[in-house]
Amino acid sequence: MGQLKDEDVQNEDGRIIYSLYYNFLSVEVVKAKFLVPIHSNKDLPAASEEGRMTIAAGTQIALPVVEGKNGRKAIRLFTDWRHLYDEFGTKGGAAVETIDSLISSFDCAINLGQFPRAGRYISLSVFNEMEEIAEKMDKAAL
Q: According to the 3-state scheme, what is the secondary structure of 85-104?
C-alpha cells in the first residue's frame, strides 16, 4: 500500500487495488503479533519457555510512545527485528503483543521509521473497521 502513489488511486483500477491490499492487511493486522521495544534501567531477565518473565521491583520500563493523531498517543510497533533494530539498535528488549491488547490505550504506529509510507498508523476506529473486514472475509472464505 505504501508503494502506491497518490495518483495511482485516482482511477477505478487503482482504488480496487488499494482496497484489495487494505482488505488483506486488515485480515492480518487483527491477528498479527508485533514487537514492542522495551527499554529499562536494569537488565531484564530471560523469558521462560512460555514467554513470561518476572521483572525486579524498582525496574523502570519505557515504551516508545509518540504523539499520535487527535490528541491520542501512539505506541510504536514493529513487524520484525530488522525494523526494530534499525530504529532502536540492538540494546533493550521487546515484548510480543497484538494490537487488540494495546488499542484501548494507544493508537499504533507500525514500522514507523525512516520510510513513513512503508509503515501504517492504526487508530481505534481503523482497527474496529479492520476487525469487521477480517470477520467478513473469514465468513466469505467458509
A: HHHHCCCCEEEEECHHHCCC
pTM of the complete model beyond 0.70: yes
Q: Which amino acid is at 91?
A: K
Q: What is the mean pLDDT of residues 79-101?
A: 89
Distances 20 to 1, 13, 31, 64, 128 between C-alpha atoms, Å = 10, 11, 18, 31, 18
Q: Which pLDDT value is given to residue 128?
A: 96
The CA distances from residue 65 to 19, 33, 52, 113, in Å, are 29, 18, 23, 13
CB atoms within 10 A of CB 118: 14
Report helix, strand and coil shares of the chain as percent, to nearest 5. 40, 20, 40
Contacts of 60 (CB under 8 A, 6+ apart): 40, 41, 42
Buried b (16+ CB within 10 A) or exposed e, 68-88: beeeeebbbbbbeeebbbeeb
Strand partners, 94: 37
Residue 59: pLDDT band by 50, 70, 90 thresholds? Answer: confident
How far apart are alpha carbons 124 and 26 in whole angstroms? 13
